[in-house]
Amino acid sequence: MDNANPTILNVSQLPSRAQKRAPRAGPDSKYDAIVLSHPAWADDLSDSDEFGGDESEDYVSENSLDEQEIYDLISTVMDPEHPHTLGELNVVRLPDIHVTPPRPGSPRGLATVLVELTPTINHCSLATIIGLAVRVRLERVLPPNYRVDVRIKDGSHAQDGEVSKQLSDKERVAAALENNTLAGMIDNMLKTCTV
Amino acid sequence: MANFRDWALQYVLSDEDAFQHSIAEKAAREIESTSANRATVGNWAASVQPWMSSSLAGDDDRMDDGDDGSSGDIIARAKALGFLAGTLEALDKNILRTDQLTFLVGFFGAMFSYDHKAGITASTKALRRISTMKGFKPDMGVKMIEDVSKLKEDFRLQAVATRLEIYELFLSLIQNQAVNSELQHKYGASSGFVVDLLQLCQHERDPRNLMIWFKIIATLLSDYAVSPEVTEETFKAFSAYFPISLRASATPIGITADDLKAAVRDCFASSQRVASHAFPFLLQKLDQGDAVTVAVKVDILRTIKACVERYESPQTSIVPYTEKIWNSLKYEVRNGEVKETIDATLDVLRAIANKLDGSRNQKLPIELLKNYIDVVFKDCRVDLANPTYTKQAGVLVMTVITSNIRGYVLESAALTDCVRQNLRQPKSPSHTKDLLLILNSFLKSRSELVANRKKGHPDDEEQLKSESRDHLDALFHDTYLKIWTANSAEPESENFETLKHILQGLALLANQKVVQQDGSASLLHSGAACSEICALLSQVLLKGLTLSSNDNVTSSSLEEEAQLALRAVVMTYASGYGEFSRKAKAEIQKRDWANASEYSLEALKSLVFRLAFVGCSEIPSDLAVDAISKSPSPLQHFITLTATLLDLFPLVPASSITSPTKESLPNSYIVAALHAGLLFFKDACISKYPSEALVSHSKCDANWIDEFSALPQNWIQLLYASEAADSAIESKGEDSPEVYRQFLRLSLFLTRHLYRAVSVGPNAVWNDRIVGQVANIAALVIRNLSEQVQITCGLAREAFNLFTESSTASSPKHTSELLTRGVLEGLWPGAMAELYHPGGIAETFLCQHLDSEGLPPHKCTTRASIGLILTNKYKGGPSTSDPEGLVIKQVLTFWGEKLQGASTSDVTRPLDTLNTIAMHVLAGAVARQDKHVLDVVPTLKASLASDHPNGSAVAHSLGILVRDSDLLSPENHAVVRRFYKQWTYSQLAKPLYEFALPAVDKPSPAAAKYRAAILSIVSNCAFGVYEADLEPLVRLLIITLGAPTTDPGNREHLAPALEIMVEILTNEPDALKSHIKAIIDSAMAVYDGCLPGSQGKPAAGETRAAVARRNAALTASRKLVLQALAAMPKKLEESVLVPFSLPLQRMLGLACGDPVREVRQVARVARENWVKIA
């Protein structure tokens, strides 16, 4: 094992969309759903048109495929050595994910996703397989107009340049996936991923 | 003589148990018939002579060798003896005389010396029988034991069953009191027979035999005064088996390892005479360290506990070993990790403390207990100062001290002092935390001891009365408050745990009771101290409001802990809740709520809900703080909450409300908190009182509404200020379910008060949202009342009078309609009978007031709900003024005609309000399966088939008839027949299939409407309802999905069609198999057609809300399409799906880039499922 004692983040410490709003959860909120509901007989507030502006645009931007969504997709990939996810081991970090969305007006135009991984130690021999798993995961769940670029973060690994090069070489990636042992290993790592 | 010989011969020759038994019976009757005279008994005994002579005359060689010839003899001999034993079994117990019995004992006893092969089983049986006979004498018992003991080494060679017989014989003999005396008289303290027995049985291994053998040993030890040497021998005999285990056997014998363990444990605990051997032996086993498994350790500990509990005269049997036991056992807790062993160890320590305290009837000298606790405390005192062992030391010392009241009174001060000293100079934050935990659990145990004080020795209560209280008094200021101040100044996440422990401790502290001289309990702390504790807890809860969002760093979990603590405190210290509510009220009133920030609004919401939770989620105890103050009423907190919230309302005055949205939120929170308070209090009643009591106490003969009219308007506020006396509310103990009745009465008053306030108050305050909340409160309150109370109070009338003197039903304002709905929702059908007079309120309302067009949707919903309730809660029946349901018939016909009229009217647009209300009115009757509904069915069909634009609107709204609604739930006392959906489907939807699916050569423009009608009904039904019509339904779905999505009419069908598709896929996927290509093609087309860009630009007049609604509908359709596609690979065979795999994967790949996140998630699931289809 390369790193026998990695630092592990608690699930509550991982970045998530839900965290941005802390709902009331104490025993006093037991009946919130009943007493604070907004039923149909009350004023239909959504009918008022007083705020103006184009809502459909907000709606799209709020829902767009962003860094957090990419993070949610890959942070649940399992580490090949430890019984922890890449998110818990801090191999995948939200600030190291960059999404360039398609140009406005052409929703199916080219978009790119760049993920920089940080291995737990700088001589991690499994950095390539982790990168490969992240790449496979993203290719399986992103639409075809998204180009996926997985790299090892500069300075985080003794051979970061070389590993990054391997990961962006399409032919080498395809060849690696033909190898049954590797493919099996990657499938195992992706078992914990839910969509 | 001849008889007996023949019988013996027959017995020997027979192999059948039943026959043998009958012969033995015959012989027994023969003996009985001659009153067992000498000759007969002699003949009987001599009848086995032919078989006996060979054995008794035979030499040892013959007996031991057992060649072929003699083995036959042995069997025959055994049977012959069996004949005698069988006869004895069947013989009357009173018939044989002592001399005859002596002879027989001699005869059978001799077998144990001479005939080890054939004679043992039968002889043992015979002896057991003799030992129960009337003529049996104790000296015979002694002789039996001596004779049997002569078996010596040959005992081991006997069959298991034979040995079992012998053990049973021994057990019955030594349990016999007379034999006991005779044995002790004959052998004295040396007890030679015991030694013989031990030698005889020492190698037993059969579990069943062992069970009896252990019982024999336990009896010998407990009932016989044997010498120390013999005791030691006996101890060796059973301790050799410890720890006992049982090998798993293929043939179950009905004895478990636990039975054996318990039997050996009984031997250990049978007499204090073995104490000097038992404790050293067990402790030595325990101290073997890692060699002992957890199961064995637990066995040892339980055995020690059994010894401690059962040994008599503890001064000599236990006291000498307590220190030794403690020294061995403490490490099990101090360094132990396994919960079972820790628990078992603590059980032993507790058992010792309780034993040394004495029994319920007699206490032992206090020194015994004191010395023991001192030994424990001395060791733990050192550990309490060591952060590594603080928790364990705390558990140990707490267990011993709080085992009983004497121990507690003796050492509690010393323990708290020691903990406090350590808390003054803690070694680390976790040390503080552990020490606080000890203090908290000490307080908890103390509460339990005080609560159970009457269950023990009368001295216990006396002890508690004289308990010193200084150390407890000092805990708040000296300990908890100091640590709180030190930690709360800079709250960081690691301090939160400590702070939480302090909050829990404060709650426990404030609830401590002391025993007064008269034996009653009162609070330990004075009102002032309790009030201080409440102030501290309130301060945590008020922080959200008093501090700005940047300064308030308190975690919500700390606030939750504080609210639980405060609730616990105010349940015994009742004034605390008044203090808290006054502070909260003052703090809320300080602010201007008209322009509050989101943070402040959240803080307000949390505070008012916590106010409701703290006061109402439990029923306060009626304990007085001190002798002078009077007992608080269990309803006091509820009254306080209600009065406080009523005083606060409205937080935003009418003049500041410009729009009904944000400004009225604070007002809405106040009403919501009132509602939550009612719900909490009802839950508290449900958990406190048995459900039958609640049912019986929701009844009352008095007309409460009449009583209310004599009360002042601000009655609740007066009750709160104790200026109004209400005999019913005072003097009810917390345990009386009468509290529930009073709660119902108060809440009905509150409802009436709110309703009257709405009818006179400024309209801007009472906007629809808040009036709706008030109506919900009314529904909750009225729902809880029994039918009889509802009738007595005339609540059905109040639904329209709205608790005011004048009828407001003539002004159909939305506000009063909302209020009407609230009352009607909670009424029992039986309480509404008076509304249904022909030409009465219900008919007028249903036919005149509901009838209007062009209402905004929310007003329409309110009216429709009233219509639904009124047609649903019609009870009918012979006792009413309208037994045939003519009113309902009238109403249904009226609405049927209205619908039909609409389709011929000049208006060229759909009449949505009319349709919605009409369908709801019908839906109420449909749920009851009212027969008059059938009369309207043709009208419905005609109106949906009409060419008028309203025809298709009617088709779409048909689903309302079977839609699930809260109004039709059992708790709202709705009348719902079990199969009404099946009934409706077969009456309305099923006949429409033939029109909805016209033949290809006969296209029908009305078919789309019929399809819409079917979809609308089916999508509101469970799968089982339409299961029989899957074939036409699937065709209908394909046609619907294939229609262009740009047409708004078609778009409306999509969602129900897709929902049904998913339902069919889940329940009966094979129904789709033959149409799979058409389904997948149309599903793909629907997805593309529902993408936002595919619908073109919004129309010029379309509002933003309308666009948003349309987008939401499109998103829902896309999601449903993908859900259906995702389900296919799991439900259908791969071979059916393979041809579509590639195009679908392409489409799903694109769907993973859907503009809406939720849809993307479903797309990913679908893509993953389809990748597997190659």
Topology (elements, then pairings):
The complex is a heterodimer of chains A (195) and B (1174).
Chain A: H1 32-35, H2 55-63, H3 67-74, E1 97-100, E2 111-117, H4 127-141, E3 146-152, H5 160-168, H6 170-178, H7 180-190
Helix pairs in contact in A: 4-5, 4-7
Chain B: H1 2-13, H2 17-33, H3 38-46, H4 49-57, H5 60-65, H6 68-90, H7 98-114, H8 120-130, H9 138-149, H10 160-175, H11 177-187, H12 192-201, H13 207-223, H14 228-239, H15 257-269, H16 275-286, H17 294-310, H18 314-317, H19 319-334, H20 339-357, H21 366-384, H22 390-401, H23 405-424, H24 429-451, H25 458-465, H26 470-488, H27 493-510, E1 513-515, E2 521-523, H28 527-546, H29 556-572, H30 575-589, H31 598-616, H32 636-648, H33 665-688, H34 691-697, H35 704-709, H36 715-720, H37 738-760, H38 768-784, H39 787-792, H40 795-801, H41 814-826, H42 841-849, H43 857-872, H44 886-902, H45 912-927, H46 933-945, H47 949-957, H48 980-989, H49 993-996, H50 1007-1018, H51 1023-1026, H52 1030-1042, H53 1048-1067, H54 1076-1089, H55 1104-1131, H56 1134-1137, H57 1141-1151, H58 1157-1171
Antiparallel strand pairs in B: 1-2
Helix pairs in contact in B: 1-2, 1-6, 2-6, 4-6, 6-8, 7-8, 7-9, 8-10, 9-11, 10-13, 12-14, 13-15, 15-17, 16-17, 16-19, 17-20, 19-20, 19-21, 20-21, 20-22, 21-22, 21-23, 22-23, 22-24, 23-24, 23-26, 24-27, 26-27, 27-28, 27-29, 28-29, 28-30, 28-31, 29-31, 30-31, 30-32, 31-32, 31-33, 32-33, 33-37, ...
In short:
The complex is a heterodimer of chains A (195) and B (1174). Chain A has 195 residues and is α+β, with helices and mostly antiparallel strands.
